Amino acid sequence: MEYSNQNKTVLIGDDHLLIRKGIRATIVYYFKDAIIDEAESCSEVMKQLSRKEYSHIILDIMLPDGILLEIIQNIRNLYPHTRVAIFTMQPAEVYSNAFKRYGVRYYISKGMSEDEITLLLKNFLNNERRVRVMSNDFAGNNPFSKMTTRELQVLHYLLNGQTSSEISQILNINKSAVSELKAKILSKSQSSNIKDLFELATTYNIG
């Protein structure tokens, strides 16, 4: 299904009220007839999507009840015609490829200038090809950039202090699989332990 410029139904998923209001104000300025809803968690995003058909959704990666990588496959499977953009402080060199696998082509950094963000939001809502703009998206050899989608999911919960048993329950995978993923994360990031991993993640603005 294709959406015209006059038929914009937008869902904004971000746990910060000021961010949601800022995106809303930008959209309304350029698309006065847009219908806009908001959500502040993964569960609220899925609940809103079950209630209404959206033409576009704009989502942060880190939400209070989980990481977007846990629900993006469901979103793409259940709502294949809905266009998705990522709007986050998380570094693109780490996460953008994971989302590209699900057809997400717009990865917008909250660290971009106002003009850059506005341009990308306008093009996204007009269903245009993503334009390349000057930004600080790619910051050299990030040690987290080679991690798989599942490793990034486990990384998120490790950085939030969850144990292997807790992560196993949250992601519905075996505890042994969590241990293997944890070992790969430490190896790829060249961290000796979780303390080192946390310090490295802080340096690269992960989590």
Would you write up a description of this structure?
The structure is a single chain. The protein has 207 residues and is α/β, with parallel strands linked by helices. The chain folds into two domains: 117 residues, 3-Layer(aba) Sandwich (Rossmann fold), CATH 3.40.50; 55 residues, Winged helix-like DNA-binding domain superfamily/Winged helix DNA-binding domain (Arc Repressor Mutant, subunit A, Orthogonal Bundle). The protein is 46% helix and 14% strand. The protein has nine helices and seven strands, in the order E-H-E-H-E-E-E-H-E-H-E-H-H-H-H-H. A five-stranded parallel sheet has the order 2-1-3-6-7, with helices on both faces. Strands 4-5 form a two-stranded antiparallel ribbon. A hairpin with a 2-residue loop joins strand 4 and strand 5. Helix 6 crosses helix 8. The protein is globular and about 50 Å long. It starts with 8 loop residues before the first strand and ends with a helix.
